[in-house]
Amino acid sequence: MTASAPAPRILVFAGSARQGSFNKRLARLAAGRLEALGGQPTFVDLGDYPMPLYHGDLEAEQGLPDNALALRRLLAEHDGLLIASPEYNGFITPLLKNTIDWLTRPHQGESGLKLFQGKYAAVVSASPGGLGGIRSLALVRQLLGNIGVTVLPDQLAVAKAGEAFDDGQLASDAQREKLDAICQRLIETLARLGT
Ligand SMILES: Cc1cc2nc3c(=O)[nH]c(=O)nc-3n(C[C@H](O)[C@H](O)[C@H](O)COP(=O)(O)O)c2cc1C
């Protein structure tokens, strides 16, 4: 990155609103690493942006929820995304899907999809299980690809999440290095593209 290039802005969130969420912990960690490596991350807790389950009649009657509009404004201010995706029954969570569904809807003649198109993202996951939520990563990649986001190939799935964190950090050197490599690659990609 040149001295004059602004640091890429990256919106970071997890697909869980749970207070003790491992994925929020991983997302917060990633935000810290993005900042240390020269990016400008913003961590958002989706628990602070509750929205009803998407329903076409609700949308027709009331438009987009205020929290969807607030998240859209944030999205517009950022160049890239880093998402920590929990796995429910081998899938992404309803919270993540519902949030993205609301965000992609048109509002006052503005396409929600436009907010995503051309953006770059990295994805990570954490689970108490042995696979670390890796099956959700294939699906979050598919979802993001469908809405025009390019997802970087590197990813991290933190298995046995109950034991994987030590004093707020990842206990494993290999996982710490992997997270750094992902963050670095996202920052470099965004900087190179000048987004
Ligand atoms: C409905 C449901 C289904 C789940 N299915 C899976 C699964 O398929 N694979 C997995 O690794 N963990 C599964 N889990 C366990 C979650 O990984 C675990 O609850 C995790 O802590 C959720 O992420 P969070 O800590 O970020 O909230 C499931 C949990 C729930 C509630």
Q: How would you sum up this structure, described in words?
A:
With 195 residues, the chain is α/β, with parallel strands linked by helices. The protein has a single domain (9-193), classed as Rossmann fold, CATH 3.40.50.360. Helix content is 44%, strand content 18%. It is built from eight helices and seven strands, in the order βαβααβααβαβαββα. The protein has helices spanning 22-36, 56-62, 66-76, 94-103, 113-116, 134-146, 161-164, 173-193; strands at residues 9-14, 40-44, 80-84, 120-126, 150-158, 165-166, 169-170. The strands form two sheets. The protein has a five-stranded parallel sheet, sandwiched between helices. Strands 6-7 form a two-stranded antiparallel ribbon. Strand 6 and strand 7 form a beta hairpin. It starts with 8 loop residues before the first strand and ends with a helix. The mean pLDDT is 96. The structure holds flavin mononucleotide. Flavin mononucleotide is lined by residues 14, 16, 18, 21-23, 86-90, 127-129, 131, 133.
